[in-house]
Amino acid sequence: MEKQKTLAWHETLEIHELTAFKSVGLMKLKQGIKHITDHRLRSIYQRKINVLESGLRELLELYPATPKPGDSSEYRVDQAFNAGDLLAFSKAEVRNTAIALTETATPYLREMLTRHLNDAIKGHGEIFRYMYDHGLYPSYHLRELLQNDVQLAQKALSM
């Protein structure tokens, strides 16, 4: 399987989030395992540590392919791609904001993140409607949607 020369911006942001999340989790597990005396629980911790380490190594291998200033013109070649990229970002924004909201205890922060979530949902709706209206996301026509996926994948593979 051939690797893309440069990852998309939204992929890079997801890799960033996963790397940070897994790194912090790995540090916590490595600190915690020192205090675990139960053999079975210690074994579970060790397996999870091994999985996180392996996952982090794989994620770090992707960092050389993250976008650098000037790279965007190499793969952002049309309006459909840009709109799709914004749609993907909007989905991630809704998801990440909703997750953050479930972790709040402070009323002011909860109110603020609720506003942010509503704004993110509205933004997602705007870009989805744009794409749908311009025939870029035929979400109610499965055959056409899948054909677009194949065309996009083929375009990406040929780059």
Structural class: mainly alpha
| Radius of gyration using CA atoms only | 20 Å
Q: In terms of per-residue confidence, which ranges show pLDDT below 50 for 5 or more consecutive residues?
A: 71-76
The geometry reads as: extended
What proportion of the residues form beta strands (DSSP E)?
under 5%
What is the first-to-last residue Cα distance?
A: 13 Å
Mean pLDDT over the residues: 81
Largest β sheet strand count, sense and barrel closure: none
What's the tally of helices?
6
Provide the helix percentage: over 70%
Total beta strand runs: 0
Element order: H for helix, E for strand:
HHHHHH
- Tally of structural domains: 2
Subcellular location: Spore coat
Keywords: Capsid protein, Sporulation, Virion
Protein name: Spore coat protein F
Pfam family, one: Coat_F
What are its keywords?
mainly alpha, 2 domains, 159 residues, 6 helices, extended
Give an overview of the whole structure.
By secondary structure, the chain is mainly alpha-helical. It folds into two domains: 9-65; 75-158, no CATH class. 76% of the residues lie in helices and 0% in strands. It is built from six helices and no strands. The protein has helices spanning 9-33, 39-62, 72-75, 79-102, 107-133, 142-158. α1 (9-33) packs antiparallel against α2 (39-62) and α4 (79-102) packs antiparallel against α5. The radius of gyration is 20 Å and the shape is extended. The protein starts with 8 loop residues before the first helix and ends with a helix. Residues 71-76 have low confidence and may be disordered. One of its GO terms (biological process) is sporulation resulting in formation of a cellular spore. It holds the Pfam family Coat_F. Keywords: Capsid protein, Sporulation, Virion.
